[in-house]
Amino acid sequence: MRRKSGLILLALAVFFAALSPLLRWYAFPRLAKVPANQYTTMVLEAKDATLLDYDSIQAVKVPKVTIVQTLKGNVEASEKIERTAGRDVVVWDGLSYVQGPDGKTVSKIPERYIFDAHTQDPVHATGEMVDGAPVKREGIEFKWPFLVEKRDYEYFDAQARVTAPIHYKGTQTFRGLSVYYFEQTIPWTKIPFPRYMPVKGITAEAVAASGTTRWYTTVRKFWVEPVTGAPVRAEEIHQEELRGGRLLSGREKVTAFSGHVKMREDYIDSTVALVKSQRVLVLLLTSYLPWGFLTLGVLLLALALYLEARGRRPADPAPTRTSAPEPVNA
Predict the structure, then answer these.
(1) Residue 38: which domain range?
(2) Which InterPro entries is this protein grouped with (predicted)?
(3) At residue 214, does pLDDT exceed 50?
(4) FRET partner for 313 with CA separation of 20 to 30 A, picked from 109, 110, 204, 322?
(5) What is the model's pLDDT at position 330?
């Protein structure tokens, strides 16, 4: 009976020990993915910023500029691309628009971002664009991969439409989470005018034809929760200038926008709460269950060996009975 129980425990020990690496290295890369129908909104603000007044073509100080970013999963487009790509694909239709202190839209730039649902690597397909212009992204954008490493990554800048390194700067604690801090600097770069212009009758083509050019630089900062790869805090020190041409009436340059852009506090709170719940699901597949199953397998193996050892122990000899001495008669 002991030997039979030991064999059952041994089989269970092998099963759980084998299940541990399977969960981590086989199941996790296939199960952890960004949902195709995800919809997110992020609101950022730049207080005491500088903004271009298009009526006078003068830079003016404003109390606040608001930037709203929306990312909406396009399920129909992702399913269409998956049929030819042969892997799980996410298509995000994004829109970034800037509002002045009066609530009027200053600019808006649409994007279509296509990437692998598991690795977050870009997937090149028809429809990939920024502001209506086709692009071929290299590197990540918006979201890091699951299980972020302490190293530099390639990050796509939608304004300049270039990919540049974003550098790992260290580990910090933010709102009770251990996060990785990344920073990217885009030097002054000539960029196209947005298709949407805030003044009726003025087009991007007309401004470009005047000889005026648009330039941009930024220092981009992200605090990323490494398990989920989700940024929980984002900032940009953002500057734009118009340079030369007839539009500036002989002036060398005019500031179009300058400000320290930060995530609004209520969106930081909601993002941190969501990330804290999601990271538990990722840790189940990468840490809690694999290590738990491995530990259980070791314990079951030890118990099986113990029962086997007891089964092999020789039985104690039976005690010998001594008869009472016969009485002696005279």
Answers:
(1) 32-263
(2) PorA (IPR021424)
(3) yes
(4) 322
(5) 38
